[in-house]
């Protein structure tokens, strides 16, 4: 086999491998997008691994018209109750602990990032770095909120 033939053969082998890797990455991207849709607060028709579709619930009073899953609805209701009772702004760690006490678990690879993302989507919730989260309507009542 000449050098040219060996190079052509090697090129064909590498192209085949590259195509396999591209197919794998495409499949991975698709699975990642499906997983994100299932875990996202904005997932509208997520179908859990167990089967049946969880129809999104419309938010009750005081929220935006976006659809949320029952899990997110429960999270938001509990969060509003916790923030209504708080005497100071609460940070993510405090909120996670108080939610866990109520049986509301926040999933995701990093629950602190997940709770931050969820809180950023909630209307009527304000925050400041290093201070925490509070209900916007209570800003004048709470200690520690920058004015």
Properties at a glance:
single chain; 147 residues; mainly alpha; Arc Repressor Mutant, subunit A; two-stranded antiparallel ribbon; two-stranded antiparallel sheet; 50% helix; 8% strand
Protein topology:
Blueprint: H1 3-39, E1 57-58, E2 67-68, H2 70-85, H3 92-101, H4 111-121, E3 125-128, E4 132-135
Task: Describe the protein in words.
With 147 residues, the protein is mostly helical. It has a domain at 57-138: Orthogonal Bundle (Arc Repressor Mutant, subunit A), CATH 1.10.10. Helix content is 50%, strand content 8%. It has helices at residues 3-39, 70-85, 92-101, 111-121; strands at residues 57-58, 67-68, 125-128, 132-135. The strands form two sheets. A two-stranded antiparallel sheet has the order 1-2. Strands 3-4 form a two-stranded antiparallel ribbon. The longest helix is centred in the N-terminal third of the chain and has 37 residues, at 3-39.
């Amino acid at each position: 086999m000449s050098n040219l033939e060996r190079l052509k053969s090697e090129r064909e082998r590498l192209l085949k491998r590259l195509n396999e890797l591209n197919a794998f990455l495409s499949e991975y991207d698709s699975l990642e997008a499906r997983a994100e849709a299932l875990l996202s607060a904005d997932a509208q028709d997520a179908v859990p691994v167990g089967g049946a579709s969880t129809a999104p619930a419309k938010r009750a009073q005081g929220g935006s018209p976006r659809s949320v899953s029952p899990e997110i609805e429960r999270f938001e209701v509990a969060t509003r109750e916790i923030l209504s009772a708080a005497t100071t702004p609460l940070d993510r760690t405090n909120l996670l602990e108080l939610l866990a006490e109520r049986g509301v678990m926040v999933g995701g690879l990093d629950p602190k990032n997940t709770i931050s993302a969820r809180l950023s989507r909630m209307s009527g919730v304000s925050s400041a770095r290093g201070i925490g989260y509070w209900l916007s309507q209570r800003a004048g009542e709470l200690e520690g909120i920058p004015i």
